[in-house]
Amino acid sequence: MRTGRRDFIAAGALAAAVGLCTPPAWAQAAATAGAAGAPVILVVGDSLSAEYGLARGTGWVALLEKKLAEEKIPARVVNASVSGDTTSGGRSRLPALLSQHRPTHVVIELGGNDALRGLPLKGTEDNLAFMAQAARKAGAKVLLVGMQVPPNYGGDYGRRFGAVFPSVATDQKAALVPFLLAGVADAKDPTALFQADRIHPKAEAQPRMLANVWPELKKLLR
Asked: I want to staple 61 with a disulfide (CB 3.0 to 4.6 A). Which of 15, 56, 146, 181 is the partner?
């Protein structure tokens, strides 16, 4: 994203870190999560969920794996986030992901790139609704992660874009994180939590991003 001081969608990488000898506790917990009945959490996102410019294992999705181990929840996390992805791309990828991984929980973190590209909000809403519905039909609980756009998009557009996420969550009976970058993009000095390009969140921002997601995800894991 290249739209100003609060830009927040970037390019991606895989979120995983594995010890060379004895695996850390969180990695061991993830490895055992393939057992029957263990939760499988599928994250379908854009580069906000894919560790651009960060050391592997420091993005919020990787931190989620560690959090699950700390909470003694033997869940497996599948990070299917793709750099630059839109809701249309996520919609096209999701059926195969559901078939392959058979998740119990699906986290949908998409929409920011739709705004960057000026795509119609109706399409964004329809795509998110399709994804939530498909995940629920596959037997998964759904967590929709909301986004916001910078002020330079205009107040009216910002309000309409932000309203898409709670609307879909309500219609599709999905849980909702209002804004993944709360406390990051809207901080007093948001540039302090972004990399030098002022686009990609730093490692220091990732725990805050997880803190925004975890309370709602934890409820679904009960």
From this structure: 15
User: DSSP secondary-structure letter at 182?
Assistant: T
- In three-state secondary structure terms, 110 is coil
Instruction: Express the helix, strand and coil content of the chain in percent, nearest 5 each.
Output: 45, 10, 40
Q: Is 105 a catalytic residue?
A: no
Whether 197 sits among the annotated catalytic residues: the reply is yes
Q: Check 46, 47, 83, 114 and give the catalytic one.
A: 47
Q: Is 49 a catalytic residue?
A: no
